[in-house]
Design brief:
By secondary structure, the protein is mainly alpha-helical. The chain has one domain. Helix content is about 55%, strand content about 10%. The chain contains 4 helices and 2 strands, in the order H-E-H-E-H-H. Strands 1-2 form a two-stranded antiparallel sheet. Helix 1 packs parallel to helix 2. The longest helix has 25 residues.
């Protein structure tokens, strides 16, 4: 019977692999924030996050971390992703709150 710490160790390995895959996407996208001029709090090469240029059409809360990463990789291949620092990404998310809430609402009503 597997022990709890074995599951924890396995999850840590999985988490490291997912972070590595995320870093590969960030590196392929240039590795710097796309919006350093418009935000005085911008740190162009630190705390980088993947950013959907046109918003997400999927709900990350309804997916496992592995499925989320597959979706990010698919969006990268389709050219839907960019890189923003945490400050710029949170600022952009606040500006597009209405759009994202509409997407989430439509996903919650989906009959599947």
């Amino acid at each position: 019977m597997a022990r709890k710490r074995d599951y924890h160790k396995e999850w840590l390995n999985t988490k490291k692999k997912l972070e590595f895959r995320r870093q590969i996407i960030i590196t392929k996208l240039g590795g710097t924030c796309l919006n350093p001029d418009n935000n005085p709090n911008c740190t162009p090469t630190e705390n980088l996050e993947l950013h959907h240029l046109e918003g997400k059409d999927w709900d990350p809360r309804a997916m496992s971390p592995q499925m989320r990463m597959k979706q990010y990789e698919q969006d990268f291949k389709l050219g839907r992703l960019g890189v923003l620092c945490k400050s710029c990404n949170s600022k952009d998310g606040a500006n597009n709150k209405d759009f994202y809430s509409e997407v989430r609402h439509s996903l919650e009503e989906a009959p599947f």
